[in-house]
């Protein structure tokens, strides 16, 4: 096993990491449209907001 990974591996890892960071920004914005909350008091992680999203959306659509 080589001591160092090829530059291409690090390049791809950086690209994927940056895409994940940018995706979190978009998801945060989308979550705020589905379930508007005060960002100063809502300290849930984005993953928790995604998990709670279908329930919030169902509550909005329920007559």
Short description, anyone?
By secondary structure, this protein is mainly alpha-helical. The protein has helices at residues 7-34, 46-61.
Describe the structure.
The chain has 63 residues and is an all-alpha fold. The protein contains 2 helices and no strands. Helix content is 70%, strand content 0%. α1 (7-34) packs parallel to α2. The termini are far apart.
Comma- or semicolon-separated keywords:
mainly alpha; 63 residues; 0% strand; 2 helices
Mean pLDDT: 80
SSE order in H/E notation? HH
N-to-C CA distance: 61 Å
Label the structural class. mainly alpha
Helix count, DSSP H or I runs of 4 or more residues:
2
Sheet having the most strands:
none
Shape, principal axes of CA atoms = elongated
The level of helicity is: 55-70%
What is the radius of gyration computed over CA atoms, rounded to a whole number of angstroms? 18 Å
Query: Residue ranges: pLDDT <50 for 5 or more in a row?
Result: none
Number of strands: 0
β-strand amount: under 5%
Layout of secondary structure:
Elements: H1 7-34, H2 46-61
Helix pairs in contact: 1-2
